[in-house]
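Researcher: Here's a chain I'd like modeled. Treat it as a single chain, no partners, no ligands.
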Amino acid sequence: MAQRATQLQAHGAELCRCLEDLRQRRSELLISAREEEAERARLAQDLAVLQLEDSLTQKRDAKQAFDRVITQTEASLNKIVESSTMLLTVAKRSAQEVAALSPGKLPPPPRVVVDTAA
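Model: Modeled as a single isolated chain. Structure tokens:
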């Protein structure tokens, strides 16, 4: 009987050591999990910043493309206005020259007002 009591006491002590070891391992696991959660949160923040920077870069590139197209279009429009003004001036002058060659036979050229303010 004393031998069983000794075995039971030895098993109880070993069981206590085993439980303590399990508790220690659980505690270490919890610490590790918390560290990984913090790392995940940091990485998620970094990812959000990177995605935002990428979006801003794309928008800046698109704005530059818009600026380029607008500048080119405005320059082309100005050339068209200049050419139209010049063409109108030449047409009026030619009409006056033709009218001077044959007075009375042709009606006066129409008056066209050119708005060069644009």
